[in-house]
Specification:
Layout lengths: L2 H12 L1 H13 L6 E7 L5 E7 L2 E4 L6 H8 L11 E5 L5 H9 L5 E6 L2 H10 L3 H5 L3 E5 L5 H10 L8 E5 L3 H4 L1 H39 L7 E2 H5 L8 E4 L9 H7 L4 E5 L3 H6 L6 E3 L20 E4 L4 H6 L4 E5 L2 H9 L13 H11 L4 E5 L25 E4 L5 E4 L1 H16 L4 E4 L11 E2 L2 H8 L7 H5 L7 H39 L7 H18 L4 H17 L8 H33 L4
Parallel strand pairs: 4-5, 4-7, 5-6, 8-13, 9-10, 9-14, 10-11, 11-12, 12-13, 14-17, 17-18
Antiparallel strand pairs: 1-2, 2-3, 15-16
Helix pairs in contact: 1-2, 1-5, 7-9, 9-21, 9-22, 19-20, 19-22, 21-22
Length: 608
């Protein structure tokens, strides 16, 4: 069998979606490539790659011994840590990727970004890369085929436990050949790092608040519905208008007033009073922030517009709101609660802001057309929000992004994160037409520019929205099911005692292990027995539903230890001591989380 047939068979059997895209590319291929790829024999008889671009010839491997070059190249990297994410710019003939795979750990993941489809096709035809294709811990992305998977893979893989266990490397010669794509490669890695740091900082900031909100908001479950309960009562042919709080909202007030009844109007909590004071009653309000200042929601006392929220959204907002609550997403603890009553839990990719949560809700509801209003994601002079508000950001520096007029506009790192989120979700939902109605501000890649007037005139449907239908939707849980939920909460409360007892046992084991390793350089039957005990305790803890309510609290208390948990040196004993010291801090954080949750449970038990 030829290299090409062998590699294509491996693709078909192991990466079927990629196989179909490659096959289509080859069938549709027309000449016009900017590079010419060839292979020559090295002195040791192995082949090496040559690429000609702009009349310059680039050699991508050693002309003496390509395999030996790759073996020496990989020695610059350390694979001591556990769960490393390795990002490689350039597959080439596969030699460097193969050496990374051979040296990395079983739980490490290699993410390859190949910027040239022509090099990849040449490799399929001239080299055996079937072992790389078959490798289950390797993700293969190719420019022009599935390059979006590079970004998505990094976002899915990088987390608090491996953020400090990253390796980034470039196939020799690739940065000279593809400098613009190399910039993209590094930019995606940087953006992923910032994205995860924001997630970690959010968890640290909101640790206790998640527990407080969750247990207070439990009282609203009995009268709530899920987003999926709403779906069958929504007409997806009518436009959804998502109103964020950017300064440009003021330009669309008259059109929003005209849109009432012809389109579904979703407003973020921050802009609610501004919209109500303008004589517009939205169809839905959206909130997500666990510590949303109540003055940023409403000063009014009797708001009955349906509220889309999470069960860990700010309890003060849910308490102030008097209408129907629609749960659009929930954390794993509440997911288990829904599943305990055989109900599909609401789960949503909410993004990083209330506006992205509103947009995701519209996607989940099946709208075919979503119009964005006030999604400026850039300053208007010094203004940040509608109503002449110039809010000071927590992150005190500016960045510049592409504006819808083709010029750069002043923005902020958090807004840039939202821009990236919108870009990704638009790519992932090609069947939805996303319309950006503003006339200035940051360009949302993939969105169509159109005025709100034209959206309403072209796509609005007269008297299409009936608020009464929404308010009459039957609640998710019957009285019998609510009794099951009460039992779920009672069991959770009772389980706190077991978690505290197990955690104290784990603390004692960690302390015993630390004492031993400080004076000994080898294991014995006691350390091995302790290790097994600790493993069983960990296994028990993470199986308990209540643990997932405490998770953010633990992250807040022991973020540093968690981020360094799987980082190691060449000193085995020192690594063991460090690991048990970090574990000690995490188990103590769990004890603190249990004590805090027990107190909040008791404060809210009569309502639950």
């Amino acid at each position: 069998m030829s290299y090409f047939n062998s590699n294509m068979t491996a693709l078909e059997q192991n990466r079927h979606d990629l196989y179909k895209k490659i096959k289509k590319y080859i069938n549709d291929y027309t000449s016009g490539s900017s590079v010419t790829v060839t292979s020559e024999l090295a002195l040791d008889g192995e082949k090496y790659l040559l690429v000609e671009k702009d009349k310059v010839l680039h050699r991508l491997n050693s002309s003496y011994s390509p395999k030996n070059e790759a073996e020496q190249w990989v020695k610059q990297f350390s694979f001591n840590n556990y769960g490393i994410i390795i990002s490689l710019f350039g597959l080439g003939s596969g030699l460097f990727a193969r050496e990374l795979i051979r040296n990395k750990g079983k739980m490490d993941v290699l993410v390859i970004y190949e910027p040239s489809i022509d090099i990849f096709i040449h490799a399929l035809q001239n080299y055996d890369i079937s072992d790389i294709i078959k490798n289950e811990t390797t993700i293969l992305t190719i420019e022009g085929i599935n390059e979006f998977d590079f970004r998505q893979s990094l976002r899915a893989l990088v987390n608090i436990t491996n953020i400090k266990s990253q390796i980034q490397c470039i196939h020799p010669g690739y940065d000279d050949l593809f400098p613009e794509k190399a910039i993209y490669f590094w930019k995606e890695i940087k953006d992923t790092y910032i994205h995860e740091k924001i997630n970690i900082n959010t968890e640290r900031f909101f640790g206790k608040r998640y527990i407080t909100n969750a247990l207070f908001n439990a009282r609203f479950i009995k009268d709530s519905i899920r987003l999926i309960d709403l779906k069958e009562n929504i007409n997806p042919d009518v436009p959804a208008i998502v109103v964020a709080a950017g300064p440009s909202v003021a330009d669309n007030i008259d059109e929003l007033r005209r849109a009432k009844g012809k389109a579904y109007i979703f407003v973020v909590d921050r802009i609610l009073d501004y919209i109500l004071d303008s004589g517009i009653e939205p169809d839905f309000i959206v909130t997500i922030d666990p510590i949303k200042p109540i003055e940023y929601f409403t000063k009014k006392e009797n708001i009955r517009v349906p509220l889309l929220c999470e069960l860990v959204s700010n309890w003060e907002v849910l308490d102030r709101h008097k209408g129907k609550k629609i749960i659009f997403s929930c954390n794993p603890y509440f997911q288990m609660m829904y599943l305990s009553q055989k109900k599909e839990p609401p789960v949503l990719n909410t993004g990083a802001s209330v506006a992205t949560a509103a947009f995701s809700s519209c996607v989940k509801l099946g709208f075919k057309r979503i119009a964005l209003v006030g999604q400026d994601l850039a300053y208007d002079g010094d203004l940040t929000h509608a109503g002449g508000i110039a809010e000071k950001a927590h992150i005190q520096y500016d960045i510049y992004v592409d504006g819808i007029d083709g010029k750069k506009v002043r923005s902020r790192p958090d807004w840039y994160e939202f821009l990236n989120w919108f870009k990704d979700v638009i790519v992932l939902n090609p069947g939805i037409e996303v319309i950006d109605t503003k006339t200035k501000g940051a360009k949302i890649e993939g969105a169509r520019q159109m005025s709100l007037k034209d959206v309403i005139d072209n796509f609005g449907i007269e008297n299409a929205v009936n608020d009464k239908i929404i308010n009459d939707i039957e609640c998710t849980f019957s009285e019998e099911e609510l009794e099951g939920i009460r039992k779920f909460f009672r069991d959770s409360y009772d389980e706190l005692g077991n978690l505290k007892r197990k955690s104290r046992q784990a603390v004692q084991i960690c302390e015993e292990q630390i004492r031993y390793y400080k004076y000994n350089t080898h294991d014995n039957h006691i350390t091995e027995r302790n290790f097994k005990k600790l493993s069983k305790i960990n296994e028990y803890i993470i199986k308990q539903p209540i643990y997932f309510l405490l998770d953010s609290f633990i992250t807040a208390e022991a973020a540093q230890q968690m981020s360094e948990m799987y980082t190691f040196t060449n000193d085995d004993i020192r690594d063991k001591i460090d690991t048990y010291e970090k574990s000690l801090r995490i188990f103590n954080a769990l004890i603190d989380a249990v004590e805090y949750a027990k107190k909040v449970f008791e404060e809210n038990m009569e309502y639950i």
